[in-house]
Amino acid sequence: MLSSVSTQPRGALNDTIKGRMTAATKKKPPKPKKPEGRKKSKLTLIGDESMRLALLEACVANDWNLTKVAAEFDMAAAGNVLRSIRQFGLEKQYKAARIKRINEA
Description:
The protein is an all-alpha fold. It has a domain at 48-104. The chain is built from 5 helices and no strands. It starts with 9 loop residues before the first helix and ends with a helix.
């Protein structure tokens, strides 16, 4: 005859089972937030500013025609130029040029 008799008191066994269940279902603490990004070197900043100025000059020279600017920089499409405009913070100048072009038409 099989016996399922435990040597622990009934209440202690339930506490053990409950303890295991709560330990298994506890949420993990949130991961610490990562820093916004690592600091750029001075050389990178100089390069970024040079690229920004080159892009701005090309856009002004081509009257903000993104297709012509893309061809000048050997980019695949005007969308790549638009992405670069956003990356280098030239959105205000681009929007102003679009409004000027619309008003002239």
